[in-house]
């Protein structure tokens, strides 16, 4: 089983969009670990930022539904990688206490 097969559909879709727009490959397992932990690595930071910036609410929700991330880890990443006024901050915050 290759690394991409070890990840869920939401991660595969995120990395597929990233590769289509940048031409760059990112290790899907490293991307998944960064999503789950809320801690980007130098290898995953650009892909995470791009996904958080461009994802619609359904794409973010799919990451949580599939267990690839929690709203807490998404908030941690968004706080680090997105401008404070980005609309995904408000979307993520709706699901946190």
Describe the fold and architecture.
The structure is a single chain. With 97 residues, the protein is an all-alpha fold. The protein has one domain. The chain has six helices and no strands. It has helices at 9-22, 28-37, 45-54, 57-65, 71-81, 87-93. The longest helix has 14 residues, at 9-22.
In short:
63% of the residues lie in helices and 0% in strands. With 97 residues, it is an all-alpha fold.
Defining key terms:
63% helix; 6 helices; mainly alpha; 97 residues
| Nearest-integer average pLDDT | 92
Poorly predicted spans: none
Radius of gyration: 12 Å
Label the structural class: mainly alpha
Give the N-to-C terminal Cα separation: 38 Å
Major sheet size, sense and barrel closure: none
H and E order: HHHHHH
Please report the number of helical segments. Answer: 6
Silhouette: globular
* SS elements, strand count: 0
**Residues in β-strands, percent:** under 5%
The number of domains = 1
Helix content: 55-70%
